[in-house]
Response regulator transcription factor (Streptomyces bohaiensis), 225 residues
Amino acid sequence: MTTTVLLVDDQALLRSAFRVLVDSEPDMTVVGEAADGDAAVRVLRQRPCDVVLMDIRMPGTDGIAATRAITADPALAAVRVVILTTFEQDDYVVEALRAGACGFLGKSAGPDELLTAIRVAAAGEALLSPSATRGLIERFLAGDGPGPSPQAAAGLATLTAREREVLLEVARGRSNDEIALRLHVSPLTVKTHMNRLLAKLAARDRAQLVMTAYESGLVRPGRAD
């Protein structure tokens, strides 16, 4: 099946470059472009797609507000948002993860990384590496971010001991296969625990599980390993 992609960036030249790259792949195609968040939401409501590459900094409605609008719309529940960021400068991309983005990608990423990101997002996984997401959250929480969230802590209380172990490994940036090896269980068992975690914590994906692990106090900045 072909993965459909929406490009959202206020720089037309960058959108054009992304379009050429994406359309060069036999398993994906660009179905639309938008120069700001409002336009992106309008385009999606007319024609939902699989993956949105969303710039975080745009005039008018930025990528965070647009992501929040997309993930709040039940008709767009299947749309996956990948935030495009300059990594080190955009610590507030954590707000986009809270808003429902499945992860983030640096604008300096190479063509192969961008294409892989689209495929990973379309498959329902978090981007790009859980450890990169963890590092961003650590910087946020170690600075001016809030302390442990009572709501997140309440969600944590519903987990079994094994589910807590799996969540802790997710926050450490480990893949399902790595978790299976560390806990001496099968990858299928880990996947089952992951599905239960997503349901119990009302999380969209792995990135939001990492957020919950930090916001609940299960993992503290600088102590994830």
Observations:
- The chain is about 50% helix and 10% strand.
- The first helix runs from residue 12 to 23.
- The radius of gyration is 17 Å.
